[in-house]
UniProtKB/TrEMBL annotation:
Catalytic activity line of the entry: L-glutamate + H(+) = 4-aminobutanoate + CO2
EC number(s) per entry: 4.1.1.15
Similarity remark: Belongs to the group II decarboxylase family.
Record-given protein name: Glutamate decarboxylase
Annotated PANTHER family: GLUTAMATE DECARBOXYLASE
GO MF, any single term: glutamate decarboxylase activity
Top-level enzyme category: lyase
Gene3D superfamilies noted in UniProt: 3.90.1150.160, 4.10.280.50, Type I PLP-dependent aspartate aminotransferase-like (Major domain)
Listed InterPro entries: Glutamate_decarboxylase (IPR010107), PyrdxlP-dep_de-COase (IPR002129), PyrdxlP-dep_Trfase (IPR015424), PyrdxlP-dep_Trfase_major (IPR015421)
Alphabetized UniProt keyword annotations: Decarboxylase, Lyase, Pyridoxal phosphate
Length: 457
């Protein structure tokens, strides 16, 4: 008796589902073999850039094999199921306590914190705590609460614009300039008033990687308090820097050593070294997180406080963070971050050595740096053309305009992460050198079709 051959045996790329264009907007009426569906998904994503060569992102693109095992054995866990996964909940608790200590909370047992899906959610929680505390104080004093504002640099990451938009807070941007490349306390008194819910200080400005001098901002706010009585708190957006400064610049005072710093957020998935999907926020003292923002979920027959925008989210990332804290320890994190910084400085020195460029900064804060074309170097090409040339070789190195008031300046930026080895960096430098030589050899201007798009990383 003969049977028709299983489609498993049909020649490659001729099986049902493979020899046709996969539907784009409609769920297909029939399913396909798992291997076929997988083939299509993997083939379609071949067209993505290579994550390891993506020097635009701050987010981890490499973890070791043991981490992958931790991931595979836990990707079914929902972080919100605290009653069902009490150990995962306890590990989350351990992790933010570790961070409270890392960030020099005077008493980590009196701090409060949580994991989030990333820095954006963590920043929003920090902003919400500011807003609610300000409202409570204003109501208690019989004052108007209709016009809260938040003061920050014009170079904040887009999550702060979203926070202000979504939660009805007026954003007050202090413009950065050639003299004041970051928010540094200069002129702060003209921006804050009785409706200011807080000031955001960024440890690792997204555009350039530079630290904002949190201690100088705190000192400026101390002066303002002396003059006006206004006691304005700081949230440190340490998306990148809060996982670099404790290891590479331990003497820099930016964290809970400053009493005015009420809360700090970071991305576990950036220099926390975990794959995407993890952020953290910690308040110096429990009192800075208004109780009426906190919800309770059931936990071991009791109740566990949660403060989050999401309900369900992956628990695996939290376990990966714990894995890394144990695997690397303080010394391991220091060594990994130092290596990234060495690579960043090697690259920035190499780029500064090319006639065409001038550095904006050199990667000595977080391992991120930006550069621009020297004035008058060429009329034939821009950094957008260099970006395109590098992309042809697989390297993703974004060029973009600086924020408001400096938008006429275009910079290009490299984010060095664990996984960009010195050896790969040498190849990148060779590629940049060769492409600059190619562009410099042009005898007429390249067409310019790059919209001045805002940069949202
Ligand atoms: C300073 C800063 N804050 C917030 C964010 C948003 O972080 P996430 O992507 O983790 O939401 C970023 C992302 O690059 C950032 O650089």
């Amino acid at each position: 008796m003969s049977s028709s051959p299983s489609s498993d045996y049909e020649p490659m790329f001729t099986r049902p589902g493979e020899a046709s264009v996969a539907p784009r907007h409609l769920i297909p009426p029939q399913g396909s073999l798992p291997a076929t569906a997988r083939q299509i998904v993997e083939d379609e994503t071949i067209l993505d850039g290579n994550a390891r060569l993506n020097l635009a992102t701050f987010v981890s693109t490499w973890m070791d094999d043991d981490a992958k095992q931790v991931y595979t054995s836990s990707f079914d866990k929902n972080m919100i199921d605290k009653d069902e996964y009490p150990q995962t909940a306890a590990i989350e608790d351990n992790c933010w306590h570790m961070l409270a200590n890392l960030w020099n909370a005077p008493d980590a047992s009196g701090a409060i914190g949580t994991s989030t899906v990333g820095s954006s959610e963590a920043c929003m929680l920090g902003g919400l705590a500011f807003k609610r505390r300000w409202q409570q104080a204003r109501r208690a004093a019989g004052k108007d609460t209709s016009t809260p504002n938040l003061v920050m640099s014009s170079a904040v990451q887009v999550c702060w614009e979203k926070f202000c938009n979504y939660f009805d807070v007026e954003p007050r941007y202090v413009p950065i300039s050639e003299e004041h490349k970051t928010l540094d306390g200069h002129d702060l008194a003209t921006y804050v008033d009785e409706n200011t819910i807080g000031v955001v200080a960024i440890m690792g400005v997204t555009y350039t990687g530079m630290y904002e001098p949190v201690a100088a901002i705190a000192a400026a706010l101390d002066e303002i308090q002396k003059d006006t009585g206004l006691d304005i708190p700081i949230h440190v957006d340490g998306a990148s820097g809060a996982m670099i400064a404790p290891f590479l610049q331990p003497d820099l005072v930016w964290d809970f050593r400053l009493e005015r710093v009420h809360s700090i957020s970071t991305s576990g998935h950036k220099y926390g070294l975990v794959y995407p999907g993890l952020g953290w926020v910690v308040w110096r003292e429990e009192k800075w997180l208004p109780e009426d923002l906190v919800f309770k979920v059931s936990y071991l027959g009791g109740e566990m406080p949660t403060f989050a925008l999401n309900f369900s989210r992956p628990g695996a990332q939290v376990l990966l963070q714990y894995y890394l804290f144990l695997r690397l320890g303080f010394e391991g994190y220091r060594a990994v971050q130092q290596e990234s910084q060495d690579v960043a400085k090697y690259l920035s020195a190499g780029i500064a050595g090319l006639d065409a460029f001038e550095l904006w900064n050199d990667g000595s804060d977080i391992p991120v740096f930006a550069w621009r074309l020297k004035d008058g170097h060429t009329k034939n090409w821009t950094l957008y053309h260099l970006q395109d040339r590098l992309r042809m070789r697989g390297w993703l190195v974004p060029a973009y305009p600086m924020p408001a008031d400096l938008e006429q300046i275009t910079v290009q930026r490299i984010v060095v992460r664990n996984g960009l080895s010195m050896d790969l960096a040498a190849d990148l430098l060779d590629a940049i050198t060769a492409e600059v030589a190619h562009l410099d050899a042009l005898t007429a201007p390249m067409p310019s079709d790059h919209p001045d798009s805002a940069f949202h990383h």
